[in-house]
Amino acid sequence: MSRSCWPQSLPKELQLYGHIYMYRFCPDIEMRAYPVEQYPCQTKAAAAIMHMIMNNLDPAVAQALPRPSSQMTLRLPQFPQELVTYGGNGQVFSNWAQFWLTMFYLSKMTEEQTLVMYSGHPLGLFPSSRSAPRLIITNGMVIPNYSSRMEYEKLFALGVTMYGQMTAGSYCYIGPQGIVHGTVLTVLNAARRYLGIEDLAGKVFVTSGLGGMSGAQAKAAVIVGCIGVIAEVDKAALEKRHKQGWLMEVTDSLDRCIQRLREARKRKEVLSLGYHGNVVALWERLVHELDTTGECLVDLGSDQTSCHNPFNGGYYPVQLSFMEAQSLMASNPAVFKDLVQESLRRQVSAINRLAKEKFFFWDYGNAFLLEAQRAGADVEKKGAGRTEFRYPSYVQHIMGDIFSQGFGPFRWVCTSGDPQDLAVTDELAASVLEEAIADGVKVSVKLQYMDNIRWIREAARHRLVVGSQARILYSDQKGRVAIAVAINQAIACRRIKAPVVLSRDHHDVSGTDSPFRETSNIYDGSAFCADMAVQNFVGDACRGATWVALHNGGGVGWGEVINGGFGLVLDGTPEAEQRARLMLSWDVSNGVARRCWSGNQKAYEIICQTMQENSSLVVTLPHEVEDERVLQQALQL
To answer: Is the pLDDT of residue 247 over 60?
Structure first.
């Protein structure tokens, strides 16, 4: 944003944007992840954190889109000028003064100080030990009775709290690569579960959203070899993905969209097709084709609109054009909300009709079914618990078992900024997994390893890096530790030129308590409890993490989830290896143990195996009631 566009006073910012961003402090420098040695710091850890912060604010990573020309009190994804990285409102900081003060503190920080962050506000540097985290972050830690959307808007306007999403506020976002891999695994495993196939040639996956996170769906469709049709109302987002090469074709015609879909099905083409229009119109057209021709043109479906924030630009109603919707949400929020809820009901109605055929739909953890239920849509599952709907979440049916085996979105960033360093880590990671298979693993574990070996071997070809030289790889506890040790040793012998930051998405085995997403397949009544995520945050800090973060909100929205993450700097020292072994083991085992106690059989098997391999691990195990009559008698008392 040019200086001429900046408000001349803080009150004017508050009036125009509903928040004070302090644009006069917006940096003039190019915002990107510079090689780590260029940061003026006293510690490697501080320089690595600076590298990660600037990567989160890189417009290429944050998927900057143009601001609407009219002045409205709303924020549209993704605005790095507003310190938003992804998810529509996932903040890195609350204002630009906080950015500068944080970078100043990091430049001065020693190995015996810890920087404390309160929802974007750098509270200061505090004395600590060398073994303590260098940075501790909390975002959105609002008293539970006040953790509502309405209260959030007030508190954010005051600048006293912020929505850090997941990896936005913990400085660990790596661009859309992370969700590309997650979507690849989701679609592959959906095809196995619902369609009973490994080869998706000629199969059609329909969904929506081409923004910061959802844009990954187009690339994932190509990688798995299916036909992906993705609707997007914002032309700028669609064109960006097309120019990027992630969308192969685009059209604003429903007729052309259906024609192209039919052609690709017949020829079994690999295709990512962007439809510039509302996904509700697309779903309703697919119903029309079914009713008039008897042909169901879609096999798999989901939704990745930002339904965690449906009334502030996260979901656009089918009744309005994009610009009309922007105007109405600012001028008459109540009417806009009514139209959004009507649109949700129409979308669900169309999906329900298609689901009577051989079509399978899942909720992608974006609160779509939750908001549809609140809108009065027909998503009820009779006799089900509070976390279950007519359609499963992708965790309940697809990723839940993967989490229960300890697999999750492990990632690393090469702070040198050198692609060659990333290539070395790719080779090391693939070799580690291949060695694990050679040593012998369970069939279900081997399948996950094979999917990830395929991913890592093809990652460079798919040109997934945006911003920092980063890689994501779903791995279990054994794989994560082995990969970390191999990378640390490569740094020690200078095969890798600079420190590497280990991290993960908060959307992981242990990192998130979210009853409508990450913990939606926990059925012992504890899905609404947040002990796991909080214990994970504390446990990572105790076992060697360089920094830790704990957030309210993320994925399904404010007040619906508690999640946490970490950063761990590998610098080639024996101490770094020891920290990695301790912290990564806890970071996975915590969640597997919790899932085991809830009654998950796969988690039970994995935690028992882990205890056999490490005598220091002793976990309380559940025992099934062998005689059901005893249970029935107890329930009658």
So the answer is: yes
